[in-house]
Amino acid sequence: MNNNIKTYSQAARQIGFVMKHHHLGSSEVRLLKKLIQDSYNTFGALHHDKIFLNLGLWDEKIYSEYKELNFNFSSVSEVQDINSQLLLYFLIRPLIKNQFFNKRLLDVGCGNGLGLKASAELLKTNYALGVDLVDRLIAHSNDHFYLQNKVNFIQSDAENLPLENESFDIITNLESSHLYPNIEDFFSEVERILSVGGFFCYSDHYYIHKDQSTKLEKFVKESKKLKIIQKTDITKLVQASLYQRLIVNEESFYRAALSIIGHEPNKILQELPTLAAVFGLIFLPWWKIRFKNPALQWVAKVARKDKFWGKKYYFYYLIQKVK
């Protein structure tokens, strides 16, 4: 793998390499984590630094619930994306409904900090901490969202967190765990850091080489401290978001893609299929991947043949620490 990343597709290929490896020796784990840092430093440089980096969710009922909160998302970011907001809301929805407020929140894999900042406001937290492996993203987070004694961000490793036992009431993890080389170590850290009575809100797209949901359920079954409160397959809701973003609003997607990769024809040819895949195109059912724009039709053909994900499954878990 080349650590001197210059393009979106190079970064994405490294992430693909990372996702296919797990349960390795310590030196290999260090290499994979270095590749993650390199790749996401590139993504962070190419994306707007105050935009959500998740696949989003769409559901009329969830949308109506979210609207009733009258949450002013523009106070967090001027870049509006209702689909990503709804996925974040769904992640912490049970806690909002039960008014699990004025607690300590930890977001592992916080990215550029938007999710933590919005969650902290929605949950009215006493304190919120975001953790991410990628230094560029943590720098962006602190630049935009740091609030003394209220909202903070640190660079650290999800599998080895420098935090005290039972020091947080809520732990969130969204679209991050598929990158972890030894995901059971992360689950152990969640169990250790979460306070008794606290909740772990966890959602990600399933990837066969990681098998996150199976490993989580095995871990919880063997644990005497954790209990699954809710388990939901939200694949169709995430696919509804992707269909809106990429197919219905294909021209907006195309403009966004060109803003990242540029307008040079050879660059478009090299980069556009990979960027579309990262944006979630290959997570759609193959029969829905159809564009009207001739400039995108060949990308659809590539995506329909892509077998990268295998089983298309997006899971959500609400876990409580009971002992």
TrEMBL record:
Record key words, sorted: Methyltransferase, Transferase
One Pfam entry name: Methyltransf_11
GO molecular function: sterol 24-C-methyltransferase activity
InterPro entries, per database record: Erg6_SMT_methyltransf (IPR050447), Methyltransf_11 (IPR013216), SAM-dependent_MTases_sf (IPR029063)
Domain of life: Bacteria
Single biological process term from Gene Ontology: methylation
Keyword presence, Methyltransferase: yes
Span of domain Methyltransferase type: 106-201
Keyword Protein transport among record annotations: no
PANTHER family in alphabetical order: HYPOTHETICAL LOC100005854 (PTHR44068:SF1), ZGC:194242 (PTHR44068)
Name of the protein in question: O-methyltransferase
Organism of provenance: Legionella londiniensis
